[in-house]
Specification:
Length: 435
């Protein structure tokens, strides 16, 4: 059962039983229903307003009962920064086809495949990014990530994330964010699921500053949905897996850890429908930076620079006159992990498949392929709507290092750089240039 409250970063309160939330005191001597009061903090206690993230949970059993007798576990394809591939490969832009589904029985934790890492999880900076495949629901398998916040983008199939705070349904075209330290379980809605993930080690994702755009446009806070309280009072053998310091640990439990009956605060999971994003763009000429498509950002210590920017390229009208409309040729200090949820990407209309990935690293040149350049150079400057398309990018100020898994995949396009080889020399020495 799912229910939601709207708004980004709000102070929420919700209870699954009437009167379960204590009134006026966060930690009363005796909580209603015999519950335990527990605070989950996502920031330092002394963080200033706006950056201070915490929620009070009123649960059947405290979490200290979930942290006993840990044993080492294994998730060999989920990597944590700093991690460098041992596979030797020359420096180059990289592209992969869709990662195939498998007959192997995989829950979410088993199915994560890290493709790049950057920064350092212990230093609380950087990220890992990759894909996930889920082929079965495991009702007795729970998880939380102590290293980072998880941003999840299904690309095929729907997944239900049952968390301590309530349940979140995710389907292609939607994203979910599960904060550091929040316990959850995954269930498939029907068919196996595939998608992308980003593990954010740094500051929690937040809405970007709109600057001169003003109060409206891009992602509206009211469109973000946070779950209402739901709980399990269920005694059964189960297992909790914790990711901490880049390693995995199991703890056997005799009850479900999803036993929060009520909660209030501003540190909670949420979801967002990317189709509600309101894009802005050039109305006459020229080509704005992709920053105008930023949905969420993880701020860095450098003013105005995100540790990670989550950017999408959705359906939109293109109306700029006498302007090369696809992304221009460029190289920059940011590194770009990109995926395609559905449709075609205008800079690579043939070579970039839904479920695929590209990596254009810091200071490596990239841009539209030869066919896209030829088409865009000759296209009329009339308004045109890009439909049935949704691509995204995890852009970071840090260089991304591919994993051995990524560099040895059969889906790696060994001839990716050839997409630019047909670009002709057009210089002819005349002011008008070649046609």
């Amino acid at each position: 059962m799912t229910g939601y409250m709207s708004g980004f970063g709000n102070e929420f309160e919700t209870e699954a039983l009437p009167g379960a939330l204590p009134k006026g005191r966060n930690s009363p001597q005796r909580c209603p229903y015999g519950l335990y009061a527990e605070q989950l903090s996502g920031s330092a206690f002394t963080a200033p307003p706006g950056a201070n993230k915490r929620s009070w949970l009123y649960r059947i059993r405290p979490s200290v009962l979930h942290a006993r007798r840990f044993s080492l576990a294994d998730a060999p394809l989920w990597k944590t920064a700093p991690a460098r591939a041992e596979t030797e490969r020359p420096l180059a832009p990289l592209r992969w086809g869709a990662i195939p589904l498998t007959e192997e029985r995989l829950c979410f934790v088993d199915g994560v495949r890290t493709m790049t890492t950057c920064g350092d999880a212990d230093a609380r900076v950087g990220m890992s990014a990759g894909v996930f495949v889920v082929t079965e629901s495991k009702g007795d398998q729970y998880f939380y990530d102590a290293d980072g916040e998880l941003l999840i983008l299904p690309q095929q199939g729907a997944v239900l994330f049952e968390t301590e705070f309530g349940a979140i349904d995710l389907a292609p075209g939607e994203i979910g964010v599960i904060p550091r330290g929040v316990k959850f379980r995954t269930r498939l809605r029907d068919s196996p699921a595939r998608g992308y993930y980003c593990e954010n080690y740094g500051a929690p994702f937040t809405l970007p500053n709109r600057g001169v755009i003003g109060a409206n446009g891009l992602a509206n806070p009211r469109d973000f949905l946070t779950p209402t309280a739901a709980f399990e009072d269920d005694a059964h053998p189960c297992r909790l897996t914790v990711k901490w310091g880049g390693r995995f640990y199991d703890c056997d439990l005799d009850h479900s850890p999803l036993d929060v009956v009520a909660w209030h605060g501003n540190y909670a999971p949420y979801k967002y429908d990317l189709r509600r994003f309101s894009p802005v763009g050039a109305l006459l000429f020229d080509h704005p930076d992709p920053s105008i498509f930023c949905v969420l950002t993880s701020p860095s210590t450098q003013p105005g620079v995100g540790d990670i920017d989550f950017v999408i390229f959705p359906e939109r009208w293109q109306v700029a006159e006498d302007t090369f409309r696809p992304p221009w040729f460029h190289l920059n200090v940011m590194s770009e992990f990109m995926g395609l949820i559905f449709g075609a990407y205008d800079a690579k209309p043939e070579g970039f498949a839904p479920g695929g990935v590209s990596l254009h690293n810091a200071m490596l040149p990239h841009g539209p392929d030869a066919d896209a350049v030829a088409a865009a150079t000759q296209a009329p400057s009339t308004p045109a709507k890009m439909e049935n398309t949704l691509a995204f990018m995890f852009e970071t100020r840090l260089p991304q290092h591919p994993t051995d898994y990524a560099l040895t995949l059969d889906a790696l396009d060994e001839d990716y750089a050839e997409c630019w080889s047909a670009l002709p020399k057009r210089f002819d020495g005349t002011p008008g240039g070649a046609s």
